[in-house]
Amino acid sequence: MSSEPEHDKNAPLRHADVHATLTRELADGRFPVGSRFPNEEELQKRFQVGRHTVREALKKLADQGYIDRRRKSGTVVLSNEPAVRYIQLLGTISNLFDFGTHTELKVRSFGFVRLRDPHLCELLKLPPDERWLRIAGVRMQPDNPAPLCWSEYYLPPCYAISREDLDRLVGPIYAQVLKRHGLQLDHVDQEIGSTALRANASALLQVPRGSPALTEVRRYFEGAGALMEATINLYPAGRYVVRSRIERQSDIKSAQ
């Protein structure tokens, strides 16, 4: 039986058709993990499509964690099933808003706490022994049973929200704070590092204790310069990808 997608014989194949066929073949084991995956020219010839169509299909496979495209060594098969990971585009505030909209927070803890952990205070750059609202839980993606990350949100009392507000929340927490207090977001500081997951976090994230994880800390500042939220997200290895675009400054361009 042919694995080619069903389509109008007179209509050209779209990248979605090529992607669907390759996805089925990966799931069936036609391309074993660790093996070389067909290159662009081979796929163009096989499907009788243009380079753009093939590149779009390959890009989607790479985003889903099926393949790894390497400039010099070619494309390698990473998995026969899609990876549980989230692609985060960074460049504007709206990109941060997308994360809170496209994922759902399953709250495990809500209440005011005293910041007594020196490591946590140093990580979030918060003064010790102050009273902050702590919201903690796991972030989930639609149609993915495995949690994406463990998230902790810290809000000062002046910007705290109620549990009822949280239950009705659509989108990120910081957006609710801005709306409630009539504020504008000025900037967000972000730091990315790594750690080994402790027992409680690893159990909730369904990975072994001590598993490597990406640590993402964000600090949200409103227009007057006050810190309105500090957040830490812990992502098990392979579940989160940060993608950004870096361009030359105009003065550098003009000098060349």
Automatic annotation (TrEMBL):
It comes from the Bacteria. The keyword Phosphoprotein does not apply. PROSITE patterns: HTH_GNTR. InterPro entries: Bact_HTH_transcr_reg, Chorismate_lyase_/UTRA_dom_sf, Tscrpt_reg_HTH_GntR, UTRA, WH-like_DNA-bd_sf, WH_DNA-bd_sf. One of its GO terms (biological process) is negative regulation of DNA-templated transcription. It comes from Paraburkholderia xenovorans (strain LB400). Residues 12-80 form the HTH gntR-type domain. One of its GO terms (molecular function) is DNA binding. Keywords: DNA-binding, Transcription, Transcription regulation. Pfam families: GntR (PF00392), UTRA (PF07702). PANTHER family: MANNOSYL-D-GLYCERATE TRANSPORT/METABOLISM SYSTEM REPRESSOR MNGR-RELATED, MANNOSYL-D-GLYCERATE TRANSPORT_METABOLISM SYSTEM REPRESSOR MNGR-RELATED. The keyword Protein transport does not apply. This is Transcriptional regulator, GntR family.
